[in-house]
What does this fold into?
Amino acid sequence: MPILNVSAIPAFTDNYIWLLRNGGTACAVVDPGESRPVRETLLRENLDLRYILLTHHHPDHVGGAFELSEHTGAKVFGPRDSRIKGEFQPVEENDRVALAELGLSFEVLEVPGHTATHIAFTGHGCLFSGDTLFSVGCGRLFEGTPEQMQVSLDKLASLPPETRLYCGHEYTEANCRFALEVEPGNAALRQKFAQVTALRADGKVTLPGVLHEELAVNPFLRSREKAVVQAAREHDPSAIPGAHTLGVIRRWKDHW
Ligand SMILES: [Zn+2]
It folds into this structure.
Protein backbone atom coordinates (compact mmCIF):
# COMPACT_ATOMS: atom_id res chain seq x y z
CA MET A 1 0.00 0.00 0.00
CA PRO A 2 1.70 3.24 -1.09
CA ILE A 3 1.98 5.89 1.59
CA LEU A 4 2.10 9.62 0.88
CA ASN A 5 5.66 10.82 1.16
CA VAL A 6 6.24 14.57 1.51
CA SER A 7 9.71 16.08 1.30
CA ALA A 8 11.12 19.58 1.12
CA ILE A 9 12.87 21.06 -1.91
CA PRO A 10 14.58 24.22 -0.62
CA ALA A 11 14.24 27.29 -2.85
CA PHE A 12 15.53 30.88 -2.64
CA THR A 13 16.76 31.62 0.88
CA ASP A 14 14.00 30.18 3.05
CA ASN A 15 11.19 28.84 0.84
CA TYR A 16 10.15 25.21 0.71
CA ILE A 17 8.62 23.59 -2.35
CA TRP A 18 6.82 20.47 -1.10
CA LEU A 19 7.31 17.32 -3.17
CA LEU A 20 4.55 14.69 -2.93
CA ARG A 21 5.08 11.07 -3.86
CA ASN A 22 2.93 8.02 -3.31
CA GLY A 23 4.99 5.01 -4.28
CA GLY A 24 5.36 5.36 -8.06
CA THR A 25 7.32 7.76 -10.25
CA ALA A 26 4.44 10.25 -10.55
CA CYS A 27 4.80 13.23 -8.24
CA ALA A 28 3.33 16.62 -7.42
CA VAL A 29 4.80 19.83 -6.04
CA VAL A 30 3.28 22.62 -3.99
CA ASP A 31 4.29 26.26 -4.62
CA PRO A 32 7.29 25.95 -6.96
CA GLY A 33 8.60 29.52 -6.74
CA GLU A 34 11.49 28.50 -8.96
CA SER A 35 11.80 25.63 -11.40
CA ARG A 36 15.51 24.77 -11.24
CA PRO A 37 15.58 22.94 -7.89
CA VAL A 38 12.45 21.01 -8.88
CA ARG A 39 13.91 19.97 -12.23
CA GLU A 40 17.13 18.87 -10.53
CA THR A 41 15.11 16.78 -8.08
CA LEU A 42 12.99 15.21 -10.84
CA LEU A 43 16.15 14.20 -12.72
CA ARG A 44 18.00 12.94 -9.69
CA GLU A 45 15.07 10.91 -8.35
CA ASN A 46 13.77 9.86 -11.76
CA LEU A 47 10.35 11.34 -11.06
CA ASP A 48 7.57 12.40 -13.38
CA LEU A 49 5.91 15.70 -12.37
CA ARG A 50 2.15 15.37 -12.95
CA TYR A 51 0.57 18.05 -10.73
CA ILE A 52 1.39 21.49 -9.38
CA LEU A 53 -0.60 23.04 -6.53
CA LEU A 54 -0.44 26.80 -5.91
CA THR A 55 -1.58 28.47 -2.67
CA HIS A 56 -1.30 32.14 -3.65
CA HIS A 57 -0.06 34.46 -6.36
CA HIS A 58 3.23 35.66 -4.83
CA PRO A 59 6.18 35.11 -7.19
CA ASP A 60 8.19 33.11 -4.64
CA HIS A 61 5.34 30.56 -4.73
CA VAL A 62 4.34 30.51 -8.42
CA GLY A 63 7.47 31.73 -10.25
CA GLY A 64 8.53 28.30 -11.53
CA ALA A 65 5.08 26.77 -12.01
CA PHE A 66 4.43 27.43 -15.67
CA GLU A 67 7.96 26.72 -16.86
CA LEU A 68 7.62 23.35 -15.09
CA SER A 69 4.17 22.66 -16.52
CA GLU A 70 5.42 23.47 -20.04
CA HIS A 71 8.35 21.10 -19.70
CA THR A 72 6.47 18.25 -18.05
CA GLY A 73 2.80 18.65 -18.98
CA ALA A 74 1.93 18.80 -15.29
CA LYS A 75 -1.56 20.07 -14.51
CA VAL A 76 -1.67 23.24 -12.40
CA PHE A 77 -4.31 24.08 -9.76
CA GLY A 78 -4.51 27.41 -7.94
CA PRO A 79 -6.76 30.15 -6.63
CA ARG A 80 -8.85 32.17 -9.08
CA ASP A 81 -6.63 35.25 -9.37
CA SER A 82 -5.73 37.14 -12.54
CA ARG A 83 -2.31 37.93 -11.08
CA ILE A 84 -1.34 34.29 -11.70
CA LYS A 85 -0.23 34.41 -15.34
CA GLY A 86 -0.47 31.02 -16.97
CA GLU A 87 -2.81 28.19 -17.79
CA PHE A 88 -4.23 26.55 -14.69
CA GLN A 89 -7.43 25.20 -13.21
CA PRO A 90 -8.87 27.63 -10.66
CA VAL A 91 -10.20 25.97 -7.52
CA GLU A 92 -12.26 27.26 -4.60
CA GLU A 93 -13.60 26.34 -1.17
CA ASN A 94 -14.90 22.76 -0.95
CA ASP A 95 -13.42 21.75 -4.30
CA ARG A 96 -11.49 18.50 -4.24
CA VAL A 97 -8.30 18.39 -6.26
CA ALA A 98 -7.82 14.86 -7.56
CA LEU A 99 -4.20 13.83 -8.15
CA ALA A 100 -5.41 10.65 -9.84
CA GLU A 101 -2.00 9.44 -10.97
CA LEU A 102 -0.80 9.56 -7.36
CA GLY A 103 -4.01 8.13 -5.91
CA LEU A 104 -4.41 11.24 -3.77
CA SER A 105 -6.99 13.99 -3.41
CA PHE A 106 -6.99 17.21 -1.42
CA GLU A 107 -9.71 19.51 -0.21
CA VAL A 108 -9.42 23.23 -0.97
CA LEU A 109 -9.87 25.76 1.85
CA GLU A 110 -10.12 29.49 1.20
CA VAL A 111 -7.96 31.27 3.76
CA PRO A 112 -7.76 35.01 2.95
CA GLY A 113 -5.56 37.31 5.03
CA HIS A 114 -2.00 37.14 3.70
CA THR A 115 -3.52 37.68 0.24
CA ALA A 116 -7.16 38.10 -0.75
CA THR A 117 -7.35 34.82 -2.67
CA HIS A 118 -5.02 32.59 -0.65
CA ILE A 119 -6.05 28.92 -0.50
CA ALA A 120 -4.77 25.88 1.40
CA PHE A 121 -4.90 22.18 0.52
CA THR A 122 -5.68 19.48 3.06
CA GLY A 123 -5.95 15.72 2.93
CA HIS A 124 -4.19 12.49 3.95
CA GLY A 125 -3.36 14.02 7.34
CA CYS A 126 -1.52 16.95 5.75
CA LEU A 127 -2.11 20.67 5.42
CA PHE A 128 -0.31 22.76 2.81
CA SER A 129 -0.84 26.23 4.22
CA GLY A 130 1.37 28.42 2.02
CA ASP A 131 1.96 31.74 3.79
CA THR A 132 -1.24 31.71 5.88
CA LEU A 133 -0.24 29.51 8.82
CA PHE A 134 3.44 29.04 9.61
CA SER A 135 4.88 26.87 12.32
CA VAL A 136 4.67 29.16 15.39
CA GLY A 137 3.56 32.09 13.22
CA CYS A 138 1.25 33.40 10.52
CA GLY A 139 1.68 35.36 7.31
CA ARG A 140 1.76 39.13 7.09
CA LEU A 141 -1.60 40.76 6.38
CA PHE A 142 -0.81 42.19 2.95
CA GLU A 143 -4.34 42.10 1.60
CA GLY A 144 -6.61 41.07 4.45
CA THR A 145 -7.87 42.22 7.81
CA PRO A 146 -7.17 40.63 11.21
CA GLU A 147 -10.82 39.51 11.18
CA GLN A 148 -10.32 37.62 7.91
CA MET A 149 -7.10 36.06 9.16
CA GLN A 150 -8.81 35.03 12.40
CA VAL A 151 -11.54 33.23 10.41
CA SER A 152 -8.91 31.61 8.18
CA LEU A 153 -6.80 30.45 11.13
CA ASP A 154 -9.88 29.18 12.97
CA LYS A 155 -10.72 27.12 9.89
CA LEU A 156 -7.24 25.57 9.84
CA ALA A 157 -7.25 25.10 13.63
CA SER A 158 -10.41 23.01 13.34
CA LEU A 159 -8.68 20.34 11.24
CA PRO A 160 -7.85 17.03 13.00
CA PRO A 161 -5.24 17.62 15.74
CA GLU A 162 -2.73 15.18 14.23
CA THR A 163 -2.68 17.11 10.92
CA ARG A 164 0.88 17.80 9.78
CA LEU A 165 1.57 21.41 8.83
CA TYR A 166 3.62 22.05 5.69
CA CYS A 167 4.02 25.80 5.23
CA GLY A 168 5.90 27.86 2.67
CA HIS A 169 8.92 29.09 4.61
CA GLU A 170 11.55 28.09 7.17
CA TYR A 171 10.65 30.82 9.65
CA THR A 172 10.16 28.62 12.71
CA GLU A 173 13.20 29.65 14.77
CA ALA A 174 12.56 33.40 14.46
CA ASN A 175 8.85 32.75 15.01
CA CYS A 176 9.69 31.00 18.30
CA ARG A 177 11.79 33.98 19.41
CA PHE A 178 8.88 36.33 18.80
CA ALA A 179 6.35 33.95 20.37
CA LEU A 180 8.50 33.87 23.52
CA GLU A 181 8.20 37.68 23.72
CA VAL A 182 4.42 37.22 23.68
CA GLU A 183 4.31 34.24 26.05
CA PRO A 184 7.56 33.94 28.01
CA GLY A 185 5.82 31.62 30.48
CA ASN A 186 4.66 29.05 27.90
CA ALA A 187 6.54 25.83 28.75
CA ALA A 188 5.49 24.02 25.55
CA LEU A 189 6.83 26.95 23.56
CA ARG A 190 10.17 26.92 25.38
CA GLN A 191 10.45 23.21 24.62
CA LYS A 192 9.57 23.81 20.96
CA PHE A 193 12.19 26.55 20.73
CA ALA A 194 14.86 24.18 22.10
CA GLN A 195 13.91 21.49 19.55
CA VAL A 196 13.85 23.96 16.66
CA THR A 197 17.16 25.56 17.61
CA ALA A 198 18.81 22.10 17.67
CA LEU A 199 17.34 21.21 14.26
CA ARG A 200 18.52 24.47 12.71
CA ALA A 201 21.99 24.10 14.23
CA ASP A 202 22.16 20.84 12.24
CA GLY A 203 20.78 22.58 9.11
CA LYS A 204 17.61 20.49 9.29
CA VAL A 205 14.04 21.33 8.24
CA THR A 206 11.81 22.19 11.22
CA LEU A 207 8.65 21.11 9.39
CA PRO A 208 6.11 19.66 9.39
CA GLY A 209 4.59 21.08 12.52
CA VAL A 210 1.72 19.14 14.09
CA LEU A 211 -1.52 21.01 14.55
CA HIS A 212 -2.15 20.12 18.21
CA GLU A 213 1.35 21.31 19.05
CA GLU A 214 0.84 24.52 17.08
CA LEU A 215 -2.32 25.18 19.11
CA ALA A 216 -0.15 25.14 22.25
CA VAL A 217 2.70 27.34 20.97
CA ASN A 218 1.58 29.53 18.05
CA PRO A 219 0.48 32.96 19.36
CA PHE A 220 -1.64 33.58 16.26
CA LEU A 221 -3.68 30.45 17.05
CA ARG A 222 -3.92 31.61 20.67
CA SER A 223 -5.48 35.06 20.25
CA ARG A 224 -8.18 34.17 22.79
CA GLU A 225 -5.74 32.91 25.45
CA LYS A 226 -5.45 35.12 28.50
CA ALA A 227 -1.65 35.38 28.40
CA VAL A 228 -1.66 36.38 24.72
CA VAL A 229 -4.41 38.98 25.19
CA GLN A 230 -2.55 40.44 28.18
CA ALA A 231 0.67 40.70 26.16
CA ALA A 232 -1.27 42.42 23.36
CA ARG A 233 -2.64 44.92 25.89
CA GLU A 234 0.88 46.13 26.59
CA HIS A 235 0.88 47.34 22.96
CA ASP A 236 -2.77 48.34 22.72
CA PRO A 237 -4.65 48.62 26.03
CA SER A 238 -7.97 48.16 24.23
CA ALA A 239 -7.04 44.66 22.92
CA ILE A 240 -9.88 42.18 23.28
CA PRO A 241 -9.67 38.39 22.70
CA GLY A 242 -9.80 37.12 19.11
CA ALA A 243 -9.21 39.03 15.89
CA HIS A 244 -8.34 42.30 17.62
CA THR A 245 -5.59 40.66 19.66
CA LEU A 246 -4.40 38.82 16.54
CA GLY A 247 -4.14 42.18 14.75
CA VAL A 248 -2.22 43.76 17.62
CA ILE A 249 0.36 40.98 17.82
CA ARG A 250 0.65 40.87 14.01
CA ARG A 251 1.48 44.62 13.97
CA TRP A 252 3.84 44.14 16.91
CA LYS A 253 5.66 41.44 15.00
CA ASP A 254 5.76 43.53 11.80
CA HIS A 255 7.85 46.10 13.71
CA TRP A 256 9.77 43.66 15.87
ZN1 LIG B 1 3.30 35.11 0.20
